Amino acid sequence: MRTTLTDLRKMHAARQPIVVLTSYDASFARVSQAAGVDVLLVGDSLGMVIQGHDSPNPVTLADMAYHVAAVRRGADRAFLLADMPFGTSQVTPEETFRNAVPLIQAGAQMIKLEGGSEMAATVSFLVSRGIPVCAHIGMTPQSHHQFGGFRVQGRAPEAAQRLTEAAQALVQAGAAMLLMECMPEPLARAIAGQVDVPTIGIGASSACSGQVLVLQDVIGLGPVPLPRLAKRYDHVAGGIGQMISAYVQDVRSGIFPDLQHCY
Ligand code: KIV
Predict the structure, then answer these.
(1) Residue numbers of the domain that contains 111
(2) What is the CA(19)–ligand 1 centre distance, in A?
(3) H or E element that contains 159
(4) Is 181 a catalytic residue?
(5) What is the CATH number of the domain that holds 182?
(6) What total of structural domains would you count in the chain?
(7) pLDDT tens, position by position, 46-101
């Protein structure tokens, strides 16, 4: 049975941690679902970890729809959350709705959009038209130029106040989930305690209803060094490199293909 928003709400109410992991293709989606991940996030981080850009902003709506469809084919049970890429939600609520449609049609069950109180009208419009929304606040990577880099947000009292108000406004507008990224722990903890929807943290707080990480950071296939908010559980890049160099040697030395691999 496919995980639904109702299931996530029940997990939140029962204080059962929600495990979220990014996913961009069918193979890893299959493995992640089998490993017990509750929510697969097709994040626009794919601009960096898959496409090799230095920010998520070059990712297009067509890119997102392509990866959402691939993840859905690989994992039929996990809840599927998809990012609205840069420029597709910083428009009118009506245009945002139109932009969200291909992601829902590709298999997403909820869309995630970045921003503060200014996004409340858009959230309300989407929700009233049947599209569940996860609001992403704090260090919203699409605004990294505005922030002067990928920096912790909400340290100054006024900034903390703005984020607190944004969380309340977005939830009031109908956001069914709140993702907090790279914020001071006490602030994220306070917000998680104030809103009545599941909260997902990354560099936020263990008080959130769940946590999200980027797959490539978890398995050691991402950039070195890692940002502080990430945790690496292995370094598969080393093992993968060894396997590929064994293949290179086999071909160069004529060991592969042997008769066993020929018809
Ligand atoms: O794009 C992404 O992967 C994200 C997570 C890191 C929260 O937004």
Answers:
(1) 5-261
(2) 14
(3) helix 157-172
(4) yes
(5) 3.20.20.60
(6) 1
(7) 999 999 999 999 999 999 999 999 999 999 999 999 999 999 999 999 999 999 99
